[in-house]
Amino acid sequence: ENPILPLVNTFTTLFLEKNLMKIYERDFIDLRLRRNINPFISVTSSWSWSDRRELFNVSDYKLIDRQDIEDYSPNRPVNASLPDAGFPNHQAFTGSLGVVTRPWLKFRIRNGNKRPIQSSSPTISLDYRKGFDSVLRSDVDFDQLELGVKHEFKVGARGKIDFWFRGGMFLNNERMFFMDYKHFLGNQTPFSTNDPVGSFRLLDYYRFSTDDRYFSANVHYQFRKLLVTAIPIVHLAGIRENIFLNYLATPHSQNYTEVGYSIDGILRFFRLEAAAAFRDGKHTGYGFRVGIATNIAGNFSD
Which end is more exposed in the chain, N or C (fewer Cβ atoms within 10 Å of the end residue's Cβ)? Predict the structure, then answer.
C-alpha cells in the first residue's frame, strides 16, 4: 500500500540515517479489471505473474553521520513471526477477486442531476486472494480472505465520525514469501500519510505483518468544537479538532493500540497530530506527525 513516499525515505535516510523502506525487485506482468455492476455493486479482479529477487544495500553514504547509529539497517524487514524475511529468487502467479457494495446508498437529484449521498451507506468489501502453486512455474501457495466495512456519518452539529474495520485470515499459507503477507499502513516518519482514517501513526511498517489471522480498526472523530475550537476566532478560521483510535490484532501484536489528538486545517492545508501507542495496555511510545488537512487528504484517498 506504499506507506512511505520515496522522497520521504530519501530524507530519513540521508539526514536521519534511517532507511525505513525495504524494497525488492520484480519483473512482472499485471492485469487489473474493474466493473461497476450497478451503483451499488462493483467487482474488481487482479492477476500478476512476477519474477522476484531480493535486493541488498550497496552504499553507506549519508549527508549527516549520526554517532548513535552505527550503519544503515539491512534491506531486509524485521518481522515478529518470521525469523528471516530473506528469500531466494522465485516466481509467483497470484490472482484476486473483490466485491464492493454500498447496499443502502441513496441519491440526491438537483436540476436533473442524480448524485450519490456518500454518507448514506457503509461500504462493505469482500476480497479473496490466491497464490497458485506450479502454475507458470509459480512457487507460492496460499489463500487469503478479507472482509472490510468503511463508513462515515455526522454527529450533532458538524461533528463527524469515520471508521474502517478490516478482518481476515489466511485459509492456507503452505508456501509464502514476505511480500505475500498481509501488511498494515504503518508510519515511522515525522510525516503523516494522506489517509487519516485508514492508517496508523506509530506502527512499525513490517513488524506485525502476518500470514495468519488479523483484525484492524481505525476510528476518527472530528469535533465541531472541543478545546481551542471553542475560541470563536479559531473556529471561524476553519480549524477543527479530532481524536482518533487505531487498533491491530495479530498473533504477535499484543493488542497494539494508538490513541491520538490532532488540530486540523492549519492555514487550511495542514494538520498536526500527537499519538501514543500501547501493547496489552502498556505504554510503548509516543510521537508527533505533520500531515495534510483531512478535507484534502480525504479527496486523495478516495
Answer: C
Quick: pLDDT tens for 62-111.
887 777 777 888 899 999 999 999 999 999 999 999 999 999 999 999 88
Residue with cell string 473483490: 98
Q: SS3 for 295?
A: helix
Q: Among candidates 94, 74, 75, which has minimal Cα distance to 176?
A: 94
Give the per-residue pLDDT at 295.
65
* Report field, pTM of the whole predicted structure over 0.85: yes
Across the range 108-117, mean pLDDT stands at 88
What's the whole-number mean pLDDT along residues 126-143? 96
Grid coordinates given for 23: 524494497
**Which contacts of 70-77 are long-range, i.e. CB under 8 A and separated by 24 or more positions?**
72/13, 72/17, 72/19, 73/18, 73/19, 75/19, 75/22, 75/23, 76/22, 77/22, 77/178, 77/205, 77/206, 77/209
Site of grid cell 454527529: 155
Which segments of the chain are extended strands (E)?
A: 24-38, 41-54, 90-101, 106-110, 113-117, 123-133, 139-155, 159-175, 214-223, 240-249, 256-266, 270-279, 282-292
Please spell the DSSP secondary structure of 90-157, one letter per residue. EEEEEEEEEEEE-TT-EEEEETTEEEEEGGGS-EEEEEEEEEEETGGG-EEEEEEEEEEEEEEEEETT
Residues with Cβ within 8 Å of 47's Cβ and at least 6 positions away in sequence, in order, are 30, 31, 32, 93, 94, 95, 96
Cell of 288: 508527533
The grid cell for 273 is: 497530530
Half-sphere exposure of 120 (CA within 13 A, CB side): 12
pLDDT digits (tens, 9 = 90+) for 35-69: 999 989 999 999 999 999 999 998 888 887 777 77
Count of other CB atoms within 10 angstroms of residue 110? 7
Contact 240, 273 (CB under 8 A): no
| CA separation for the pair 15, 9 (Å, rounded) | 10
